[in-house]
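seq:
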Amino acid sequence: MAAIQEHYPRNPHFGSLCFSDYFLLFYCVVRILVWDLPLFLLTYPYIFSHTTPRSTSFGDHLTRFLIRKTNELFNPALTRWASRPGHHHVDIIFSSPRYGPHHKNIYHPVSRRDFAGYWILQSSLVAPKPPSTSDVTVLYLHGGGYFCSQPAHYLLFLLRLAESILNQGVSISIFALDYSLAPEHTFPTQLAEAAAAYKYILDEKRVSPGKIVVAGDSAGGHLALSLLVHLDKPFPSIPDAYGCLPKPLGLVLISPCLSLYHEPPSYVSNKHIDILSGLFLRRIATHFLNGSTEISANKEVPNRDSPYVEFLTPNPEVNWESVLPPWVCALAGADEIFFDGIRGWVETVREKLGHGRVVLNVGVEKEHAWQFLETMLDAGTKKYLESNVGDEGGFEETAKIGEMIVERMRISNH
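struct:
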């Protein structure tokens, strides 16, 4: 099968490095090998001898450490280069026995003036139908700190999620937004593109809002909440046509980043065991906001305090009753630095809306966005891709998300 060629009009240099980037890469490799890795090996026995016995292996902790250090040290260009341009991932999936026979039904691009993205699938992997006929349509907003990743990196994760839902007798369409990345594009660009994509699904694809689920991981979870706040109270600089739209059926937040500067206690307690760190969070804020301001009540307000950006600090402008859809599923790893923030946000919302409307699923000894990582790092990826569509098993943590979505859909229908 011919290699997939993609263009990135919003980030045309994705994966490219300049001379200074190669110099930084050399510095990062030397520093990790000479200083950070030896320090990790020396302190590892001490750090974990003072914690509750864990089943997480040394190899898992080493992998988390390496991801954490590269997240801290790499600039956006290096981070994108390390993840490789998305078409490499698409080539692997399209040439696999599992998805190769159905490649014509997968990953269809949509490019408009105000947004771009991909239909991962439309109703079925085998016999596609318009999304309006699906039992549920997911608008997926990917993670990556707003400055790396593309829908293609999430293709296997989203296909596994789709199969989990299809295997329960529920038809599904998934549209993955390919939003513009920071620091080339700053807030509120990503919010405007998410709003345009949501309107496209509603108006052009004729999907009922009662069949739409907005989902996202990490920065994508942050963007999902920002979108819902915008639907309730349109952001001033975004066209009126993209605001005051009906709410979706549900919201799925996978390890969401809920604040760009507030650091709950888990930032300290989990700093040695997650793949992210407080330094990474501060980099997100710098790249994403980049000193921009919004106009609110005829005065400039720092974006980090905006109700479209900050979700941990109580804000009188946000009425969660009117912002949130009928049901919300939040997922958090107990080992991630965002854990206390996610748990605290869920408790706050539950106090106002009741326990039944918001579900929290905690992954014991799991790191940030562990469901997505298993489709990128798991040793069973090759075996999974060599099996057939519909075969059970593989990437069980991702499959559980699909089970949660179907469960909440069925409860809401009764």
